[in-house]
Amino acid sequence: MRAVNRLLLASLLSVFPLITVAEDAPSPEPDVTIRQDGDKFIQEYRVNGFLYAVKITPKHGKPYFLVRADGTSAQFIRSDQPDMLIPQWEIFRW
User: Which residues span the domain enclosing 55?
Assistant: First the structure.
């Protein structure tokens, strides 16, 4: 009986550090920010603060996704039209 109790205690103590390490790991689920811009809803998907996709749902029409062109640059492309780059320059500033 003592051997079983010691074995059980040793196994619990060996698993305890794994539990504390697993809690500190970053969440694999994205943070989603939903906002309304005029007549369309915009959902921004972020993982650890990095914006990787935007879903735009217009009032009339099909929703579409904008994703990063190469994974790291600030240029986005439409997922349903991968050859179309979304312009990122600023023409006027008030």
Answer: 31-85
Number of domains in the chain: 1
DSSP code of residue 92: -
Q: Is residue 8 part of a domain?
A: no
DSSP class per residue in 7-65: HHHHHHHHHHHHHHHHHHSPPSSPEEEEEEETTEEEEEEEETTEEEEEEEEESSS--EE
Average pLDDT of the chain? 76
In a domain, 11, yes or no: no
Which pTM was predicted? 0.56
| Residue 22 Cα to chain centre, angstroms | 19
Cα–Cα distance measured from residue 26 to residue 42, given in angstroms and rounded to the nearest whole number: 25
How confident is the model over 39-60, as pLDDT tens digits?
A: 999 999 998 888 888 999 999 9
